[in-house]
Amino acid sequence: MVVACQTADTVTTVKGLQRGARELNPVVLAILSAGGVAGLVAAKAGVTLLVLQHHAEISTGVLATANVITCGAAVHNASVLSKLPPKPGPGEKAESE
Questions:
Q1: What whole-number distance in Å separates Cα of residue 81 and Cα of residue 92?
Q2: Which one of 40, 64, 83, 94 is separated from 21 by 20 to 30 angstroms, measured CA to CA?
Q3: pTM of the model
Q4: Nearest to 74 by CA among 14, 2, 5, 1
Q5: What Rg value do the Cα atoms of the chain yield, rounded?
Q6: What is the DSSP string of the chain?
Q7: Distance between CA atoms of 36 and 30, rounded to whole angstroms?
Q8: Per-residue confidence at 93, pLDDT binned at 50, 70, 90?
Q9: How many other C-beta atoms can be found within 10 angstroms of the C-beta atom of residue 23?
Q10: How far apart are CA 13 and CA 22, in angstroms?
């Protein structure tokens, strides 16, 4: 579940940013400012690997809470994405251009 939630949050965050959404989480915004999308992907992968490595030592309540928050963020991101105009394809101009 940890991998699925982290992946969903990362993918929906990146797709949203590519389509003009803005990041509201100050921690994620700082990571994006410092390292861009590659930095975000690296940070999310690092957190996921750390959780997987120490999974047995982390209480089920903490894991469940983290999964609910992360998957909840992905659901929110997907909702935002559903309201954004589609990303222009190659050779197409964005509506604002």
A1: 19
A2: 64
A3: 0.86
A4: 5
A5: 15
A6: -HHHHHHHHHHHHHHHHHTT-----HHHHHHHHHHHHHHHHHHHHHHHHHHHHTGGGS-HHHHHHHHHHHHHHHHHHHHHHHHSPPPP-TTPPPTT-
A7: 9
A8: low
A9: 17
A10: 9
Q: Which two structure tokens, joined as six digits, stand for 64? A: 């469940």
Q: Which residue has the tokens 């994405």?
A: 81
Q: Given the structure tokens 């609910």, which residue do they identify?
A: 68
pLDDT of amino acid 95: 56
Identity of residue 40: L
Q: How many CB atoms lie within 10 A of CB 42?
A: 13
